[in-house]
Amino acid sequence: MSSETINETLGLSLLFALAIIIFVFNSQIHILINRLLNRLTIIEFQKAGYKIIDADKNLPNDSKSWTWHEAWGITLPIPRTRDGEKLLAEGNITLKQAFIWLIFASTIYALLTTSPSLIKNPANISSQGILILIGNSLLTGLLSPIGFTLITGVIHGISKLFGSKGIWHNFFIVYVAFNAPIMILSGVTVLIYQVFSLNLALLLEVALSFYWLLVIAPITIKVNYKFRWLGAFLVNFFVMTVFFFSIVGLYIVFNSNVLQR
Question: pTM for the whole thing?
Answer without folding.
Answer: 0.71
